[in-house]
Amino acid sequence: MSIVRRGRFALLRTRQTLSVLDNGWDVLRRIAMRSDELVYRVGPVRITGPNVPGARVPVYEVFAEDEYGIEWFAQGLGDAPTLVDIGAHIGCFSVAFATRFPGATVDAFEPTPSTSAYLQRNVDDNGLAGRVRVHQQAVSASSGVLVMADNGAGSGHNGVLHLGEAGAVSIEVPCVGLVSVLEAAGDRVDIMKMDAEGAEYDVILNSPPERWAAVRRLVMEYHPLPGHSFDELETYLAGAGLTLVRRDRYTDGLGLAWFSRDELTPPA
Fold first, then answer.
1. Quick one: how far is CA 16 from the chain centroid?
2. Cβ-contact 181, 210 below 8 angstroms
3. Percent of the chain surpassing pLDDT 90
4. Cα 59 vs. chain centroid, distance in angstroms?
5. Which helix (H) or strand (E) segment is 262 a member of?
6. 35-36-39 Cα angle (round to 5)
């Protein structure tokens, strides 16, 4: 990123901090002071995370930019939808979703121990422990153990995609099979959100197609993984009855995609 682009991005983040966060000035002060943690307040929501760039990103994606289009994608689901959040990070999406829909139930999966601790903390701090279940597990095509990179609490570079990168520590984490995840949700998942840092290819392509009948809608961030392409995911999911309804491309092989079984009104 060039100096000009970095400057523009920093200005954007500053504006978002002051316009979206109720305690924006305090957040900027603590970033400048290099505090260990940051607390973000957005209306009734309180999110705590480590003061590192990767941990700050989802706060802005969810609360400032509505990157996942929560209102649009949840249209017609009523006040009690079910959500499975694979790659829940520190909990921004799960907490925002459960706060917006007072009857929602959420299963949130985050395998990195240090990041999962923040996820549980944010669920508890927002009084959502009765409706948001935290699982310190990875999700895979089958149960077992997954080797992944751990770049620290809240890092956006935790996952199979970042194994072997400089400074990354390889860890083993328990993983649960997608079929078990769906069964635990009662084989009824209104929305599945997936940000698995490259593991999405294994989770999807190696799972039984017929089990996806339990999933009504899927929003996922897909990543550039050698030997794979987004076309594989789209073809597989189409065969499982999930149609691509929207796709935002970020860079080659990286983007966000929405799939649905039912027809949706296009986003505004």
1. 20
2. no
3. 77
4. 11
5. none
6. 80
Residue that the structure tokens 């799939």 belong to: 259
What's the pLDDT at 206? 94
- Which residues are paired to 173 by β-bridges? 146
Q: Can you say how many angstroms the Cα of residue 218 is from the centroid of all Cα atoms in its chain? A: 12
- The percent of residues in the chain predicted with pLDDT above 70, rounded, is 92
Element (H, E) at 130: none
What is the H or E stretch that residue 73 is in?
Answer: helix 70-73
Compute the residue count for the chain.
268
Structure tokens at 15: 């504006």
| Nearest alpha carbon to residue 192 among 231, 225, 169, 219 | 219
Report the distance separating Cα 98 and Cα 258, nearest Å: 20
Beta bridge partners of residue 256, listed in sequence order: 221, 248
Q: Which two tokens stand for residue 79?
A: 């006040």
Residue 47 neighbours by CB under 8 Å, 6+ apart: 39, 40, 59, 63, 90, 91, 92, 95, 122
Residue type, 74: A
Average pLDDT over residues 30-51: 97
What gap in Å lies between CA 220 and CA 99, rounded to an integer?
21
Q: Residue 108 belongs to what H/E stretch?
A: strand 105-109
Q: What is the pLDDT of residues 83-133, one digit of tens each?
A: 999 999 999 999 999 999 999 999 999 999 899 999 999 999 999 999 999
Calculate the alpha carbon distances from 229 to 197, 240, 248 in Å. Answer: 14, 18, 15
Rg (CA), the chain: 18
pTM of the shown model = 0.93
- Whole-number pLDDT of residue 256: 97
